[in-house]
């Protein structure tokens, strides 16, 4: 049903159909309704995920007054689906196993998800308000290479509306250069509802960014970060990061698992240092 509806939204192969504004709006609304229906299925999610899924999947209402190209609509739909799939994984509390726990309470969990593979879940509390994390992770996304040594560069290739972007990320070598340079082309979708924010994404294709010589094109599966104020301490933020990556190439699973779980631990530490240094700089100014 969804695929047939989306073909209708794309306008089939007939020019006169593509130019019918009302028809495209109806099809977009239908996509939003079906995404909502899918989001409500499956195991009962936690309260905060349930709230985001209910409010963050209203694709039709967001696109009702704006027309996009067929390719832009495809990217928007892909970002929405990545968010729903990622939140669906997080909402299922069964089967998670602890990979590591740090002295400061940071915890990495993992589980194997059918049709996805092994995913990793980082749970941390950051001693900064959510607004600071949103600014750093969303509004200043392209500066991540300045403070996270695991990332060489992130570049926004295209922005679609207020919620969707296409990005190119060049990752640094890892595990003592056992894992060579990788890059990723992803569609990212951001939803902010009240005091909660979800950043989701997955691999996509972008003609203007072909594979680079000497760099392996890896792929993000459905992945997301969920930010919300810590209960009872609004000046602190609970951050949950679901990570799903296919690094490609010939790599032992033990190496892959070690690299991905350590990447999450390192990210939390680098993010804290970045936020602390930014706060100290602002205080001096």
From TrEMBL:
The family database entries (CDD domains) matched by this protein are listed as: START_STARD1-like (cd08905)
Among InterPro entries, the record links this protein to: StAR, StAR-like, START-like_dom_sf, START_lipid-bd_dom
Any one GO CC term of the record: mitochondrion
Alphabetically sorted, this entry's keywords are:
Lipid transport, Lipid-binding, Mitochondrion, Steroidogenesis, Transit peptide, Transport
Taking every annotated instance into account, which residue ranges of this chain make up the domain START?
67-280
Quote the function comment for this protein.
Plays a key role in steroid hormone synthesis by enhancing the metabolism of cholesterol into pregnenolone. Mediates the transfer of cholesterol from the outer mitochondrial membrane to the inner mitochondrial membrane where it is cleaved to pregnenolone.
> Under what name is this protein listed?
Steroidogenic acute regulatory protein, mitochondrial
């Amino acid at each position: 049903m969804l695929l047939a509806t989306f073909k209708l939204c794309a306008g089939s192969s007939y020019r006169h159909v593509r130019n019918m504004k009302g028809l495209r709006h109806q099809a977009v609304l239908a996509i939003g309704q079906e995404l909502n229906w899918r989001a409500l299925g499956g195991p009962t999610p936690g309260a905060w995920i349930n709230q985001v899924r209910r409010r963050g999947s209203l694709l039709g209402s967001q696109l009702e007054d704006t027309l996009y190209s067929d390719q832009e609509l495809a990217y928007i739909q892909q970002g929405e689906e990545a968010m729903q799939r990622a939140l669906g994984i997080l909402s299922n509390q069964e089967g998670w196993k602890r990979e590591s726990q740090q002295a400061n309470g940071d915890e990495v969990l993992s589980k194997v998800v059918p049709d996805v593979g092994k995913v990793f879940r980082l749970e941390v509390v950051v001693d900064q308000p959510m607004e600071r994390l949103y600014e750093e992770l969303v509004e200043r996304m392209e500066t991540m290479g300045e403070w996270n040594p695991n990332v060489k560069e992130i570049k926004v290739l295209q922005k679609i509306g207020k919620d969707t972007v296409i990005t190119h990320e060049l990752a640094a070598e890892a595990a003592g250069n056992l894992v060579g340079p990788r890059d990723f082309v992803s569609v990212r979708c951001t939803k902010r509802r009240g005091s909660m924010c979800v950043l989701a994404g997955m691999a996509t294709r972008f003609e203007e960014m072909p594979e680079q010589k000497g760099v392996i094109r890896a792929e993000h599966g459905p992945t997301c970060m969920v930010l919300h104020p810590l209960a009872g301490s609004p000046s602190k933020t609970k951050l949950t990061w679901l990570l799903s990556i296919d690094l490609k190439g010939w790599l032992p699973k033990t190496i892959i698992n070690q690299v991905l779980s350590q990447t999450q631990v390192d990210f939390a530490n680098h993010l804290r240092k970045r936020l602390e240094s930014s706060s100290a700089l602002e205080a001096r100014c």
